[in-house]
Protein backbone atom coordinates (compact mmCIF):
# COMPACT_ATOMS: atom_id res chain seq x y z
CA UNK A 1 0.00 0.00 0.00
CA UNK A 2 1.40 3.41 -0.95
CA UNK A 3 -0.29 5.06 2.02
CA UNK A 4 2.21 3.38 4.36
CA UNK A 5 5.02 5.22 2.55
CA UNK A 6 3.51 8.60 3.47
CA UNK A 7 5.20 9.44 6.74
CA UNK A 8 5.80 12.43 8.96
CA UNK A 9 9.46 13.45 8.82
CA UNK A 10 11.13 15.07 11.83
CA UNK A 11 13.27 17.86 10.45
CA UNK A 12 16.40 19.10 12.21
CA UNK A 13 15.85 21.92 14.72
CA UNK A 14 18.50 24.26 15.97
CA UNK A 15 17.11 26.01 19.02
CA UNK A 16 18.47 29.46 19.74
CA UNK A 17 17.15 32.24 21.99
CA UNK A 18 17.39 34.55 18.96
CA UNK A 19 15.05 32.29 16.96
CA UNK A 20 14.97 28.68 15.86
CA UNK A 21 16.21 27.27 12.56
CA UNK A 22 15.04 24.22 10.63
CA UNK A 23 16.44 22.98 7.33
CA UNK A 24 15.72 20.31 4.73
CA UNK A 25 18.41 18.63 2.66
CA UNK A 26 17.53 16.71 -0.50
CA UNK A 27 18.29 12.98 -0.36
CA UNK A 28 19.17 13.26 3.32
CA UNK A 29 15.93 14.26 5.04
CA UNK A 30 13.72 13.49 2.05
CA UNK A 31 14.17 10.80 -0.62
CA UNK A 32 14.31 13.12 -3.62
CA UNK A 33 16.01 16.13 -5.18
CA UNK A 34 14.08 19.37 -4.83
CA UNK A 35 13.14 20.87 -8.20
CA UNK A 36 10.27 23.14 -7.16
CA UNK A 37 9.07 24.96 -4.05
CA UNK A 38 5.64 26.52 -3.73
CA UNK A 39 3.46 27.68 -0.88
CA UNK A 40 -0.20 28.31 -0.10
CA UNK A 41 -1.20 31.30 2.00
CA UNK A 42 -4.19 33.60 2.60
CA UNK A 43 -6.46 30.55 2.20
CA UNK A 44 -10.03 31.70 2.98
CA UNK A 45 -11.84 30.02 5.86
CA UNK A 46 -13.61 26.84 4.76
CA UNK A 47 -11.58 26.54 1.54
CA UNK A 48 -10.02 23.28 0.39
CA UNK A 49 -6.83 22.85 -1.62
CA UNK A 50 -5.32 19.83 -3.30
CA UNK A 51 -8.02 17.57 -4.63
CA UNK A 52 -5.61 15.72 -6.91
CA UNK A 53 -2.90 13.06 -7.10
CA UNK A 54 0.40 12.80 -8.94
CA UNK A 55 1.59 9.95 -11.13
CA UNK A 56 5.32 10.38 -10.39
CA UNK A 57 5.87 13.47 -8.21
CA UNK A 58 7.21 13.18 -4.65
CA UNK A 59 6.45 15.97 -2.18
CA UNK A 60 7.21 17.14 1.34
CA UNK A 61 4.47 19.29 2.85
CA UNK A 62 5.28 21.58 5.78
CA UNK A 63 3.06 23.84 7.90
CA UNK A 64 5.32 26.89 7.98
CA UNK A 65 2.80 28.80 10.06
CA UNK A 66 -0.58 27.88 11.54
CA UNK A 67 -2.17 24.53 10.89
CA UNK A 68 -4.19 22.48 8.41
CA UNK A 69 -5.31 18.89 7.79
CA UNK A 70 -4.08 16.70 4.94
CA UNK A 71 -6.37 13.86 3.86
CA UNK A 72 -4.53 11.04 2.06
CA UNK A 73 -6.05 8.24 -0.02
CA UNK A 74 -4.20 5.53 -1.96
CA UNK A 75 -7.31 3.91 -3.41
CA UNK A 76 -7.49 1.30 -0.65
CA UNK A 77 -7.06 3.16 2.64
CA UNK A 78 -7.39 6.73 3.89
CA UNK A 79 -5.82 8.72 6.69
CA UNK A 80 -5.73 12.30 7.90
CA UNK A 81 -2.66 14.08 9.23
CA UNK A 82 -2.90 17.32 11.19
CA UNK A 83 0.04 19.59 10.39
CA UNK A 84 0.89 22.31 12.90
CA UNK A 85 4.69 22.41 13.42
CA UNK A 86 7.27 23.92 11.09
CA UNK A 87 9.83 21.26 12.03
CA UNK A 88 7.68 18.37 10.75
CA UNK A 89 7.12 17.55 7.12
CA UNK A 90 4.75 15.07 5.57
CA UNK A 91 6.33 13.00 2.81
CA UNK A 92 3.77 12.19 0.12
CA UNK A 93 4.80 9.64 -2.51
CA UNK A 94 3.29 9.31 -5.99
CA UNK A 95 -0.20 7.85 -6.49
CA UNK A 96 -1.71 9.40 -3.37
CA UNK A 97 -4.87 11.49 -3.65
CA UNK A 98 -4.61 14.43 -1.27
CA UNK A 99 -6.95 17.12 -0.05
CA UNK A 100 -5.95 19.91 2.32
CA UNK A 101 -8.47 21.76 4.48
CA UNK A 102 -9.15 23.14 7.96
CA UNK A 103 -6.62 25.97 7.46
CA UNK A 104 -6.15 28.13 10.54
CA UNK A 105 -6.00 31.88 10.18
CA UNK A 106 -2.60 32.90 8.83
CA UNK A 107 -1.62 29.35 7.86
CA UNK A 108 1.20 28.91 5.34
CA UNK A 109 1.65 25.53 3.63
CA UNK A 110 5.00 25.03 1.90
CA UNK A 111 5.57 22.16 -0.53
CA UNK A 112 8.92 20.85 -1.73
CA UNK A 113 8.48 18.92 -4.97
CA UNK A 114 10.69 16.45 -6.82
CA UNK A 115 10.07 17.92 -10.26
CA UNK A 116 8.95 20.97 -12.19
CA UNK A 117 5.26 21.60 -12.77
CA UNK A 118 3.85 19.20 -15.36
CA UNK A 119 0.10 19.09 -15.90
CA UNK A 120 0.44 15.61 -17.45
CA UNK A 121 1.57 14.26 -14.06
CA UNK A 122 -1.75 15.14 -12.40
CA UNK A 123 -4.87 13.13 -11.73
CA UNK A 124 -7.60 15.78 -11.45
CA UNK A 125 -10.52 13.33 -11.51
CA UNK A 126 -10.89 11.06 -8.49
CA UNK A 127 -12.53 8.22 -10.46
CA UNK A 128 -9.63 8.16 -12.94
CA UNK A 129 -7.17 8.05 -10.04
CA UNK A 130 -9.05 5.19 -8.34
CA UNK A 131 -9.17 3.22 -11.59
CA UNK A 132 -5.38 3.44 -12.01
CA UNK A 133 -4.53 3.10 -8.31
CA UNK A 134 -6.46 -0.13 -8.02
CA UNK A 135 -4.63 -1.67 -10.99
CA UNK A 136 -1.71 -2.04 -8.56
CA UNK A 137 -2.18 -4.63 -5.82
CA UNK A 138 -2.40 -3.21 -2.27
From TrEMBL:
InterPro entries: QdtA_cupin_dom, RmlC-like_jellyroll, RmlC_Cupin_sf. CDD domains: cupin_QdtA-like. Residues 5-131 form the Sugar 3,4-ketoisomerase QdtA cupin domain. It comes from the Bacteria. This is WxcM domain-containing protein. It comes from Rugosibacter aromaticivorans.
